[in-house]
């Protein structure tokens, strides 16, 4: 072509090695630094207090960190699924009750005497089904995700209550130990260091990271979230992508259901998850996820979940009442989003 | 020597390391329509943001009617009589005409609206604009774009603006509405109001403006009377180099037919359109906004359903979805870059390859390095100015964004390119590059369908031009047998009874 033979004043510079990966990390760096900051602040406060009371600090202990990580995995795992949904421009308000429904179904299977793999699989499948229902309703009815999942939120709770017969299902006699200790902060054997749930979350986080950044599906999810019209223009099957996004996120709801089942020591309570969806969404948002879609990262989301867990733990150690803890988390959500917006504006303007 | 209404002297403004404005001087006399001309990124918007109080200049001075003017914010600028009418209108869609005109300047007593005293002022303003028929109680969202623009102008009149800035006001208007707008602007001028007119269309500038100032790279490089300056001189000032021709001719030959439409109808438009496009042909589609041109392209691309009729490309019927059409060799460049064409927060690479990731994927897993190499090749080929292929779209200028949209269609190896207003809102230099590219693509044997409201470019670039009006295709002729006037007649449909 003629254009190529002309001198090009602004040829793109050759890429520095690793630049691409650094940029990938860039947007998640903020939340991660935030996590370090929160850790340092609580550690400093605890050390200061301990020196005044003339005793050892209680914040930065092995047990303390084990608990923090366990709590991170409880929210963080479901938040991985929510990250995919939010990146694709959606939201899932039904996550909390869907988690409870999954736990209930698992408990039901164990009480009915099925083998452990059946109970686990049933829980995971239930998660996928809830996601599939959400994705399909949004696509077929063309109603915004907020409204659809607001509806399915109570729908799932009602379903759970029907399955459970209105009382929590206790099944722990027939549950194997390895399941009950999924969320045990102090694991047996000791060489695991942290609860099996944390390891599971880390493996899943790695998988989601790859899914989002290195697959065609990931590109399509980002495209859908940043501009649905563009996605359609580029021949992306918008409905199918959206249903896939919600269904995949459902797997994480299922895993979170198993975690809840373990936390309640082998009990499936259909009313237990109410309000949990907001914690999950908060983790994604603190982690740099944008509710208008197209932005979010795995490292950010896990950092977001960890920030909340650190605050929770730190407040207990410093004997700060629950009420103040809620205020701190509220402030952090607003601050995180404001900071992020400020950063975006500076980039563009 | 009369005191100028506005004088901006030696204005400079930096953003970090870039000098957005570097000693710009600009004057407007009362009752004068002044054109502010320049390529994208020349500093026009920055200068206007300084004027409207959105930015504070780093240096220089501004005077209004001889007294110093230093607005702290846009509110103060408005209070001093500066009104801005942007390309994207600033209206509350659910409110009425009256409420929009009076927004922020309501006549009230103790918090209560005094509609009785306020209504006549609105009516008076609309009358002055030659639109007494625009009813004040009508909700703004029911009005056409042109009428909505009038509401904004009326707002400026009610606030007693001394100076009104029009930023690309005709970019979404039909020729007829644009003519009307020019009439209104002349009226404002006769009232002694100063007007700053920003536009890419030089013909239009010539029609409505008295004087001009050209900006280039943040500096004012020329000022004068339009009557005494030729178009070539202005273009040369804008691009800072001698653009021999805005429309470089690339010889291309027509081959066998590629696309054929038999009596295509969509839900509302198009209606009963039959047409054939050959390989190596650039077919222009002229028509006003709302004539069904965009709808025709959307039907062709599978974005809107084809209710009846037959589409065939290379003698076979393509599948219905955009995905199927892309596979059959269709490519669409949307008229709406921001809303539809490009995912603004995603990278150049992503936007270029969304429609064809297959060459870089093995079982869904992406080879990002291989993709980056391909993207960089296209960036060099189309001369897309950006730091890296990872840069988000919203950091690029309009012209470079459009090149990415074009690169996507080329990257997906489309044989048939459907281009909807591909040169809208981009600078002259890039326009010329795009015209040349279109010619080259035709020479490579691709077919191009080129929709535009800008008849000059259609006449210069196309082999044949079809005119659409009210959803129907009125007439096709070789480009040489059309003139701007005959195109306009057909587009407006004045001779409809004959056909």
Question: What attributes does this structure have?
Answer:
heterodimer, A: 349 residues, mainly alpha, ABC transporter involved in vitamin B12 uptake, BtuC, two-stranded antiparallel ribbon, 14 helices, 1% strand, disordered N terminus, B: 499 residues, alpha/beta, Rossmann fold, 2 domains, six-stranded mixed beta sheet, 23 strands, 33% helix, globular, disordered C terminus
3D structure, described in words:
The complex is a heterodimer of chains A (349) and B (499). By secondary structure, chain A is mainly α. Chain A has one domain: ABC transporter involved in vitamin B12 uptake, BtuC, CATH 1.10.3470. Chain A contains 14 helices and 2 strands, in the order H-H-H-H-H-H-E-H-H-H-H-H-E-H-H-H. Chain A has a two-stranded antiparallel ribbon. Chain A is globular, with a radius of gyration of 22 Å. Chain B is of the alpha/beta class and 499 residues long. Chain B folds into 2 domains: 6-239, Rossmann fold, CATH 3.40.50.300; 257-498, Rossmann fold (3-Layer(aba) Sandwich). Chain B has helices at 44-51, 74-79, 97-102, 115-128, 145-158, 175-190, 202-208, 231-239, 293-300, 322-327, 337-341, 348-353, 368-381, 398-411, 428-443, 455-461, 484-492, and strands spanning 6-15, 18-28, 33-37, 59-64, 67-68, 82-85, 108-109, 112-113, 163-167, 194-198, 211-216, 219-225, 257-265, 273-278, 282-286, 308-313, 330-333, 361-362, 365-366, 416-420, 447-452, 464-469, 472-478. In chain B, a hairpin with a 7-residue loop joins strand 13 (257-265) and strand 14. In chain B, helix 4 (115-128) crosses helix 5. The relative contact order of chain B is 0.11. Residues 495-499 of chain B have low confidence and may be disordered. The chains are: A mainly alpha (349), B alpha/beta (499).
């Amino acid at each position: 072509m003629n254009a190529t033979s002309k001198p090009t004043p602004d040829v793109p510079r050759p890429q520095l090695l690793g630049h691409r990966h650094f940029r990938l990390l860039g947007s998640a760096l903020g939340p991660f630094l935030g996590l370090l900051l929160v850790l340092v602040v609580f550690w400093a406060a605890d050390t200061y207090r301990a020196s005044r009371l003339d005793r050892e600090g209680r914040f930065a202990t092995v047990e303390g960190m084990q608990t923090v990580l366990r709590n991170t995995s409880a929210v963080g795992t479901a938040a991985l699924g929510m990250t995919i949904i939010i990146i694709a421009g959606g939201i899932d308000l039904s996550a909390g009750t869907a988690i409870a429904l999954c736990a209930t179904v698992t408990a039901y299977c164990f009480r009915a005497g099925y083998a452990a793999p059946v109970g686990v699989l049933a829980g995971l499948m239930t998660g996928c089904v809830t996601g599939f229902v959400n994705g399909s309703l949004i696509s077929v009815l063309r109603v915004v995700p907020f409204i659809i999942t607001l509806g399915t939120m109570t729908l799932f709770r009602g379903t759970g209550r029907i399955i459970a017969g209105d009382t929590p299902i206790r099944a722990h006699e027939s549950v194997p130990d390895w399941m009950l200790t999924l969320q045990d902060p102090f694991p047996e054997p000791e060489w695991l260091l942290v609860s099996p749930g944390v390891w599971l979350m880390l493996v899943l986080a790695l998988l989601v990271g790859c899914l989002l950044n290195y697959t065609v599906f990931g590109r399509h999810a980002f495209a859908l979230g940043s501009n649905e019209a563009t996605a359609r223009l580029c021949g992306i099957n918008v409905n199918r992508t959206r249903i896939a996004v919600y269904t995949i996120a459902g797997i994480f709801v299922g895993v979170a259901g198993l975690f809840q089942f373990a936390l309640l020591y082998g009990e499936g309570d259909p009313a237990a998850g109410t309000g949990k969806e907001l914690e999950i969404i908060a983790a994604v948002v603190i982690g740099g996820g944008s509710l208008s879609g197209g932005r979010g990262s795995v490292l950010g989301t896990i950092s977001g979940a960890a920030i909340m867990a650190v605050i929770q733990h730190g407040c207990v150690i410093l004997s700060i009442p629950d009420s103040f803890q809620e205020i701190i988390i509220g402030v952090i959500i607003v601050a995180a989003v404001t900071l992020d917006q400020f950063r975006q504006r500076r980039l563009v303007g | 020597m009369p005191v100028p209404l506005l004088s901006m002297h030696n204005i400079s403004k930096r953003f970090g390391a870039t000098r957005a404005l570097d000693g710009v001087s600009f004057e407007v006399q009362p009752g004068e329509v002044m054109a502010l001309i320049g390529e994208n990124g020349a500093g026009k918007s920055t200068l206007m943001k300084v004027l409207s109080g959105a930015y504070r200049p780093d240096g220089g001075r501004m005077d209004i009617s001889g007294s110093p003017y230093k607005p702290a914010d846009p509110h103060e600028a408005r209070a001093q009589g500066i009104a801005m009418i942007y390309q994207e209108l600033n209206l509350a869609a659910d409110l009425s005409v009256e409420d929009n005109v009076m927004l922020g300047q309501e006549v009230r007593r103790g918090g209560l609206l005094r509609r009785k005293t306020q209504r006549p002022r609105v009516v008076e303003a609309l009358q002055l604009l030659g639109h007494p028929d625009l009813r004040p109680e009508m909700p703004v969202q029911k009005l056409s774009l042109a009428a909505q623009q009038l509401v904004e102008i009326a707002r400026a009149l009610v606030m007693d603006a001394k100076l009104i800035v029009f930023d690309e006001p005709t970019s979404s208007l039909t020729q007829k509405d644009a003519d009307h707008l020019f009439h209104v602007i002349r009226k404002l001028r006769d009232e002694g109001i100063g007007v700053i007119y920003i536009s890419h269309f030089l013909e239009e500038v010539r029609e409505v403006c008295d004087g001009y100032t050209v900006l280039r790279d943040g500096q004012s490089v020329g000022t004068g009377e339009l009557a005494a300056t030729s178009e070539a001189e202005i273009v040369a000032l804008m691009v800072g180099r001698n653009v021999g021709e805005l429309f470089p001719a690339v010889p291309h030959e027509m081959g066998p037919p590629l696309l054929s439409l038999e009596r295509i109808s969509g839900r509302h438009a198009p209606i009963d359109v039959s047409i054939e496009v050959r390989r190596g042909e650039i077919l222009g589609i002229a028509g006003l906004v709302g004539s069904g041109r965009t709808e025709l392209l959307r039907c062709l691309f599978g974005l809107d359903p084809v209710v009846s009729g037959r589409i065939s490309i290379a003698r076979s019927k393509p599948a219905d979805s955009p995905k199927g059409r892309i596979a059959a060799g269709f490519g669409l460049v949307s008229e709406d870059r921001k809303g539809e064409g490009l995912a603004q927060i995603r990278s150049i690479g992503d936007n270029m390859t969304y429609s064809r990731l297959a060459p870089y994927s093995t079982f869904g897993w992406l080879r990002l390095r291989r993709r980056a190499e391909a993207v960089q090749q296209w960036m060099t080929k189309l001369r897309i100015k950006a730091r890296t292929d990872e840069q988000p779209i919203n950091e690029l200028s309009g012209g470079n964004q459009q090149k990415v949209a074009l690169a996507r269609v080329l990257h997906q190896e489309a044989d048939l390119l459907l281009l909807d207003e591909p040169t809208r809102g981009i600078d002259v230099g890039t326009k010329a590059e795009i015209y040349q590219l279109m010619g080259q693509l035709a020479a490579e044997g691709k077919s191009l369908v080129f929709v535009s409201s800008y008849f000059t470019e259609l006449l210069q670039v196309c082999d044949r031009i079809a005119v659409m009006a009210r959803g129907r295709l009125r007439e096709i002729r070789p480009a040489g047998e059309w003139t701007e006037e005959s195109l306009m007649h057909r587009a407006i449909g004045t001779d409809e009874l004959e056909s």
